[in-house]
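job 3f2a | input accepted
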Amino acid sequence: MTDAKVSYTQEVEKLDLRSHDITEDKIAALRAAFPEAFTEGDRIDFERLKLALGESVDVGKERYGMNWPGKAECFRTIQQPSLGTLRPCPEESVEWDTTENLIIEGDNLEVLKLLQKAYLGKVKMIYIDPPYNTGNDFIYPDDYTESLQTYLEYTGQVDSQGKKFSTNTETDGRFHSKWLNMMYPRLYLARNLLREDGLIFITIDDCEVDNLRKCCSEVFGEENFVAQIEWQKRYTRSNNTDEFTSVIDHIVVFRKSDKFKPQLIEREEEANARYQNPDNDPRGPWKAIPFLNPLSPEERPNLVYDITHPSGRVIKPQKKAWRSEECVWKRLVAENRVWWGRDGYSDTPSIKRFLSEVRQGMTPINFWDYEFAGHTDAANQELKEIFGDKVFDTPKPIRLVKRMMQLAAPSEENCIVLDFFAGSGTVAHAVLDLNKQDGGERKFILVQLPEFTGRQDYVTIADICKERVRRVIEKMNGEEAGKLPFGNATKPDRGFRVYKLAESNFKPWDAKVIHDSEVLTKQLELHIDHVSTGRSDGDIIYEILLKCGFQLTSPVETIQLAKKIVYSVANGELFICLDRKLNMELIRAMAERKPERVVCLDEGFTRNDQLKANAAQILRTKGVSSFKTI
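job 3f2a | predicted structure (630 res):
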């Protein structure tokens, strides 16, 4: 073997099976902004950074901020990459081949990590309805350092070692801290997925609303607080308590950046009714706006001048100056926009503001009553109509989520809406319903822990979620059966792909193994074929997609090259070959197609470094930017 071939072999990279390294991104951004703060070993020198930032650095011991037991562990949790994967489940899906919607079953912390590469900055809106920390509905991994292992044990995918998911009780002593330890990493990871013009809505009750606000201010930035909406979830009080009846929940709203601008909501009939046309003006209904300024004549002397009343009287401003300068007034008179009252004798002129000139929507407010956004009784009724039974305790009404989407996910955009505390699947129902209503093409991603329900029919909450969406789709399709599509409307996306969190398809190298020759030899033998037992090509393909940064709904085509199967992803952007016996004919055939990236099983080059070296050289010559093995 020549030295040249050896060097090419060494340059063939292994595909990184870990989830996206968030810390590396932060360091890269810091390096780009402050290269002078990095040492020769590519370490951050904080003293140099302080010098570069000057007086902007706060070196005091006392500072305003939020702290709690376990916060440092939150950052270690965030920085710990996931080695899991999401296994495709076409048999539980609807319209697998064409849909771009996702329902993912698994611990949302691990799933959010796995989505980082493929969905970074792609989500327009997030809505979550997290556990309210009531003491009995709070499910979380007890050991954050082994989150995936804990989840696998909880769901029976591996032998239990005593770890569990449990409730959080006030007698625990760290009641609020545990809730924050659960929420902080998830919010941090969720922020990365938002588009720059994205928005997050979080429903919460009185117990944790203050902590949630402070937590979001730290993660998203205090300047990105949008609103705290009070949602009237009930339309009547309860007399079964001696305390206050809670009739509202809070909706905490934060944006990713100032690029977010809320959509206007439809105008209410009450607002339009204020515009009338008492003088039959051909320009249509209008509303009278007093021609007065909030400030006094002394404060605005440039807005003080004589106005002639239709009766001939001269009117001077008294306690308030006029609204505009004299040249504007003369223009308004010429345009017949001045109104002196129905009898024409008012001493204060008004200006006509025509309904046709008013914005065709209304700015949102921070109080949503039950008529505007639905209520919990309606949510329960929606589920009962679907299942014939109350299968879930705390659903949210679809009207509430639709209102959020009308503000943050307009119909003209192909928006992704994410809910990683999916519950009974309200967000998917709302997306499908609003798309049907306005012709939008919004997509949903739901993540739900398979929390056991104790029922025989729907064993987990994830089962309830999937079945609800199936039935909603079936009902919508049934209602439209036999109807012709309107205009050039495309077929709506009424399907979803199911994926389930699992261990990686590839056996990880155990660095903690005993340094014994016999044990090491056994481990090396296992890694000759390091694909886990029972995993299909589909399982492997979608793990590679995810870890290469492709979305889970990217099109995958099976093609034949040199009499072997190759998977072409995203119209040939990525080639995946899982053949265990690669040859030069296949390498040349892939190179001729000129994909941007190629991934092969390392096992395909077993004991043939020369083939790997030649493959790297040929693919590079044909312009393949990345060739990796796994």
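job 3f2a | The chain has three domains: 83-267+377-479+492-502, 273-359, 507-629.
job 3f2a | closed
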